[in-house]
Amino acid sequence: MMDVDVDPQLQRLVAAHAPLFRGAHPEVPSDLAPGWYPLVDGLCSDIEAVLGDACAMFQVLQIKEKFGGLRVYYRLQCASDFPAGVGARVRDLVQQAEADSKGLCEQCGAPAKLRNREGWLVTLCEPHLAEWAADDGIQRQDVGLQGDAVPQPAVRGGHVLYLDFDGVLHPHDVDVEPRRGPYVNSPEGHAIFEHAELLSDLLEPYPHVRIVLSTGWVTRYRYSGAQRRLPPRLFARCVGATWHREMPLPAFEALSRGEQVRADVARRQPQAWLALDDHDEGWEDARGHSVVITDPIHGISSPAVLELLKVSLQRFALPFGPDVLGNCHSSERVGKRLKVHIHDDEAPELQVRSATSRRGKG
Asked: How many CA atoms does the CB half-sphere of 203 hold within 13 Å?
């Protein structure tokens, strides 16, 4: 149930699409930008049109502003009798609405641009930009990386796992209080980093895999502060982050997670890489290949995500690189070895040592 302080216009929007807004979630924040109400209303209508009588299979988890743009988190349980492509169509609608929000003023819905407001990213039209500038006397500037010197990573090459925290190692809805620190706001019964040891166990066979932090925790706590919150086995694998304190923060946060990671890949030049993220913006051409999209509530512990992650790690983390597995047909554990069956009658069977053989960090 929403708080009584929620904008009545937002309450009416939710009531108009009650089949999509149900259960203990969503947490619809009262500060959802009013200029985006029509955008969200149209998105909900489009989703209802696609799903028809199956709207009960869809659930909005959260709608909010993040990095100056709209974010929509949802769950869709695709039934076996769903028409082909329904899930992809819904995902396309959500991604389009999120992209459109970056061109609409969050205050009035007029054409706008992404702006840096004293370190905070906002999407404002010229009149509202001038209004806010007059309010606090801050000189605004558009976001951009042009001409900015970007430091090179201290550790380059190797096999890199890009790791987000929220929605990956714990639910995505995380708040911070001065005395309490970061905590899972909703749903109840979850804890910060509750799946960190699970990831440690999954990485155990691959000691050469390094971790680069691709999480907003780095911009809040710096790299060292975010790293030391991880359990020892994950802590020891960390070699850096996608953001560095010498980078202009507003310009960095204007990028999607996929763009942030690709920029680091260009600088770090890893032999192979894999990303864990709970949102697919910026990953359209990499989903199922270089990125595993996690469940925003259950993170990597979701059974479907966990199975995909195991397969993805096996393909990406082999010391000789993922290209060798282009014709991989199947694989199996044989004692301390990983046996990979190549789909080629003339190719020899490959057996690769696992972590327990101490081959080295690569």
From this structure: 27
Quick one: which H or E segment has residue 124?
strand 120-124
CA distance 274 to 309: 10
Query: How much is the pTM?
Result: 0.59
The answer to whether 256 and 281 have CB atoms below 8 angstroms apart is: yes
Q: Is 142 helix (H, G, I), strand (E, B) or coil?
A: strand
Look at residues 36, 26, 35, 37 and name the one whose alpha carbon lies nearest to residue 3: 26
What's the CA gap between 103 and 199, in Å, rounded?
A: 38
159-316 domain in CATH 2.60.120?
A: no
Domain spans of the chain, in order of start: 8-101, 113-142, 159-316, 325-357
> If we measure between CA atoms, which residue out of 321, 273, 275, 279 comes closest to residue 297?
279
Report the candidate in 160, 249, 145 with the shortest Cα–Cα distance to residue 209.
160
Query: What is the structure's pLDDT at 344?
Result: 36
| Residue % of the chain over a pLDDT of 70 | 73
**β-sheet bridge partners, residue 213:** 163, 241
